[in-house]
Amino acid sequence: xxxxxxxxxxxxxxxxxxxxxxxxxxxxxxxxxxxxxxxxxxxxxxxxxxxxxxxxxxxxxxxxxxxxxxxxxxxxxxxxxxxxxxxxxxxxxxxxxxxxxxxxxxxxxxxxxxxxxxxxxxxxxxxxxxxxxxxxxxxxxxxxxxxxxxxxxxxxxxxxxxxxxxxxxxxxxxxxxxxxxxxxxxxxxxxxxxxxxxxxxxxxxxxxxxxxxxxxxxxxxxxxxxxxxxxxxxxxxxxxxxxxxxxxxxxxxxxxxxxxxxxxxx
Length: 266
Description:
- The protein is mainly alpha-helical.
- It contains eight helices and no strands.
- The longest helix is centred in the N-terminal third of the chain and has 51 residues.
């Protein structure tokens, strides 16, 4: 079945506007053929109800896409904070564990940034995802001996907690990337818009006028609204993407600390 989220946005918007115009024309000609006359008042009430329901459906779908967008954006900041906190807590460990884990945390942060800067390139995404998994395993393997070296240290539980949180957030962000507005809802929205356009054309036939300029403006607005919904639902592509700036700033700060050797004194 056709995946609407995979279509180019300009093509989708133009195709939807053209389909709405065609649907209106079909409704208009059907009204003329049936001989819809003196039905202006009744058709007007039905059309108003149909357009109101269309607006409600657009608002509902936009809310779904917006909620997912905000959730993805919040997870960027959460992962940046978890990365920074993990790095800082690692500084409380003794050498050689401190240096090894510090480098591992920075390398892990770079792998995460590479993953989200890969866009929709399948090869880069697969490589960055594999690197993330490998670094998670290495970090955990390096962390266990460090904690066992000082089993009674009070810093051990916080380090375990923040490392777990860091790994959990990677899974949460992946799940958020894959959480889209269901295609069934998007298809229903488009079908409903086409039916409403046909009803609009039928109502115009009963009035004897097409009102092409006003109709075209309405269809462009509907097409823009649907396109914006799909754009919001694409976190890696389109004109509305999730900014990775908080994570990038955090990672650059950690790299600066690591390069300067500025770690907490013992």
